[in-house]
Amino acid sequence: MDIRTNQNVLMKENRIANDKNLIEGGHSCSNKGAMFFSYSVKNVLPLLHSGPGCSLLGYHGHVLHSGEAYPFANTAVGANEILFGGTESLTKGLIAAYEIHKPEAIFLIPGCQTSTIGDDFESGIIQADLPIPVVNCQTSGYDGDLVWGFKKSGMEVLKFFCKAQKKIAKTVNIIGFPAHFNIYWKGDIEEIKRLLNLLEIKVNCIFPGDCDIKKISEIPAASLNLVIDEQFGMEQAQFLNNRFDMPYIIPEFGTMVGIDNTTDLLMAVAEFFNLDINAVNTILENDRSKYISMACHGYTAWNDLVQHTFNTFGISAPGAMAIGLFRFLMSEIGWEPKIINLNPSYPGAKARIEKLLELDGRSFHPQILENADDYELIQACNEDFPYVFLGRGGNHFKAESMLGGTVIYLTVSYPAFDRFIINYRPIVGYRGIPSLVDDMLTRATYFF
Amino acid sequence: MRQIAFYGKGGIGKSTTTSNISAALSDLDFTIMQIGCDPKSDSTKNLTGGIYLNTILDTVHNNKNDREIKAEDFIIKGYNNVICCEAGGPEPGVGCAGRGVITAIQVLQDFDIFNRYNPDFVFFDVLGDVVCGGFAMPIRQGYAEEIYVITSGEIMSLFACNNIFKGIVKFAKTGVSRVGGIILNSRNTEKEVPILEEFARKTNTNLLHVIPRDNIVYKCEIEGKTVIEGAPDSDQAQCYRALAEKIIDNKRRDIPEPMQTPEFYDWIKQKGFGLVVMANE
């Protein structure tokens, strides 16, 4: 386990790939990423200062897989604002949004148009003179992709609310939790808390995903920051480390998906808090065996159903999650990887996959793609298609139509147009293992 | 109908020159329309006695939908029935002036202004440099079939002129816009005319006319008049009339060959000219 307590690994900003012919749902813009972030903080209202269409896209992209609606507001700038400036509209929008929704805070999300014309956001906030905090997320749509917007807005919120305070022993924050980027996010929160509770470690704040403004302001009180998803949490953990001297732990292989990723991360936490390693091992082993047993039953059913032939896989998901799934399917279930599309990717992601292949030692040679668009992905599938594909809702339809329905396709990542998760099933931790096997089995049942 | 745009560095005298050309041509019984494409909205003030026009953008976007907008809301007839209108735009520091030009031209299209007034000459007086797509709108949309660039012999004015040529070249393949010539609005810098002649040769254009510096221009402007109106018997008025007649007869439609920026500065260094306003000015 790689414990990094200082800023020795820098992640570059993951900007929109400008060389793309197609942009699919995994990219979108930073403005939508900021909306995803804002939805993940309780009692906060996201206010888009943009054209009206911006809110619609972010809204649909989000609620379809969560099965819930979240309030938001939009200043709906038009030709007048673009020509003559929209600061006055922003001020009016802030006042109206506050009067209607009475949120604890407003996260201002600027759009491409208002940023391009140079609207004075800070002046608009000051003139509104609201009795609640208004945070400028600084995520003009074109500044970056969805993931960048999510991280940037999170960073701005941390800077705004966090203050140095006394540490509380044996408490952790979950930093950079991907929330709406992960369609299993609600179940994941429960699973993370459950596992840490097994070790008698208290979760101070899950940021974002299970927090409000007060909880965010208390983040510096925790003893440790735990990054569940390297892609989303690394920079924020580094920031908190620099400003509040908070150590952090990140997974070596992307996320907490799968048996080894989960165990590695929990053991690192146990080591950090100087827990009795033998006792922790016993606790985790007891818990793990219960859920692995479930997964084995499911996998037996899978083999009965597909006659042992469907043992190759492809993945298209955000980098860290894709790495976690890759490790689980290849090293723990034993399938052969054909295609992995890290989308969006991040620095070091491809190297993680290569390292996993090396550790596995079976001489697999999957196509490793980074930020491949739908066209490139389908081309890759046509070259060497996998029998099982885990990816986005958007890819689903193309996979079925262009590959002649020959792939068992399971949507595991946003945007999920074809499913939503209502029963708090996780994808991380030990419970995530039977959950994922069950998902695949259910999908295979429909396939046959 | 001939559609002509005047470009040039900010403050170089585009509006003054355009207004005087408009006035001179109107005296020859041509129907003239002058459209100011600058948020300052002061292109036509010397044709209207110095009054501020209700601009196109003011009219359209501040309308409360309680009445039908008419072209006459933003068009007035000035000196000798020159048809005047101003695109308008945002206050300094806010909004998007380039978008304003695009919107204003769309409004003119919607109102079918050119067919309605049927002018012999339409003059677009465009703000400064071609800094963004909005200010290239008259070129892109083919409204500016002829372009005249007004410049002095000062370095930055020549630099702007060269940049404008770059903008013209960009759209030359697909559009109809061509350069009619360079108009030197003199600042009395050293060797101004030979420098401009060489600049024109190097950029495949021509120096159409030289306007000498004369304080009569400023005196007339204070009264909200062109020189043609305020000092019709002056040498300066005669100079503007001569320019107007050259434009009538001008057949040149050049695709310019602008210098790359390093080449431009190399040329400046090679020439070694002062390019400074003379002490007596």
Quickly list its features.
heterodimer; A: alpha/beta; Rossmann fold; 3 domains; five-stranded mixed sheet; five-stranded parallel sheet; globular; disordered N terminus; B: 281 residues; alpha/beta; eight-stranded mixed sheet; disordered C terminus
Main β-sheet description of chain B: 8 strands, mixed
Unreliable runs of chain A: 1-18
Largest interface: A-B, 14 and 12 residues
Q: What name does CATH use for the topology of chain B?
A: Rossmann fold
- Helix-strand string of chain B: EHEHEEHHEHEHEHEHHHH
**CATH homology-level superfamily of the largest domain in chain A:** Nitrogenase molybdenum iron protein domain
CATH class of the largest domain in chain A: Alpha Beta
Characterization of this structure:
The complex is a heterodimer of chains A (448) and B (281). By secondary structure, chain A is an alpha/beta fold. Chain A folds into three domains: 123 residues, Nitrogenase molybdenum iron protein domain (Rossmann fold, 3-Layer(aba) Sandwich), CATH 3.40.50; 120 residues, Rossmann fold (3-Layer(aba) Sandwich), CATH 3.40.50; 159 residues, Rossmann fold (3-Layer(aba) Sandwich). In chain A, 48% of the residues lie in helices and 14% in strands. Chain A is built from 17 helices and 14 strands. In chain A, α4 packs across α6 and α11 packs antiparallel against α12. The N terminus of chain A is likely disordered. By secondary structure, chain B is an alpha/beta fold. Chain B has one domain: 3-Layer(aba) Sandwich (Rossmann fold), CATH 3.40.50.300. Chain B has eleven helices and eight strands. Chain B starts with a strand and ends in a 10-residue tail after the last helix. Chains A and B meet through α3 of A and α3 of B.
